[in-house]
User: What shape does this take?
Amino acid sequence: MSSSKASPPRIECTDVLKRFYYYTHRTSTLREWFIRAILRRPLHVIGREFILRGFNLTVLSGEVVALIGRNGSGKSTALRLIAGIYAPTAGTIRVNGRVASVIELGVGFHPDLTGAENVELAAGVMGIGPKELKSRFDEIVAFAEVGDFIGMPVKYYSSGMQARLAFSVALSAVPDIVLIDEVLAVGDEAFREKCIGRLGSFVDGGGTILLVSHELDTVAEVCHKAVWMEDGLIRMTGPAREVVEAYRAESSDTAGDEA
Assistant: This one.
């Protein structure tokens, strides 16, 4: 029986702008400070760089959406804005539900702490209590396939081991929304397939996924929708296969022009 009231979008971004500032000059000595003060010149000269603008996105419950595009196009910036790592300069971002982020390899992991200690810290940040973590700990370690390394400092982990552990902890939080930035590209093919299987079960249960990926075959295969980003703007939004085909066609044309 369908509800008379439609569920709100899990993610809704409206006219989002993110502006990054950078210094073209910074006064670093007392002597320069006096000279610039006497000459009435600014102590620091700030430049502006517009990275993301006019970003509009709606993601519904049960959808898998990918952000694609070249490096520097604004994909990861958009994901970090939705995760709450960055605050937008303008526009609104609404996220409805519990979010688990696997944004960057090893983010939140302290290199000198053991895998087990990092799992405990990460679980606490995600709202998993000690009793709940105790009941899930063995499952987290088993899925991550880190074995006895769980008792060793994370600084000795390979990039693939860090990615597996981060992914396993994130999914253990039983979120409504999962944000993923290229983590599935790290590690072996067998683990990638296992992750896709877990994410498929998550979506079948009504979960929502927003991911950044250069793995276009995976995007076309598992995503409902794709957003092609270019120079901080949305170039195209639509069914994943259509967007991937358009992106590949232009990439091929560009490569041909440069040859």
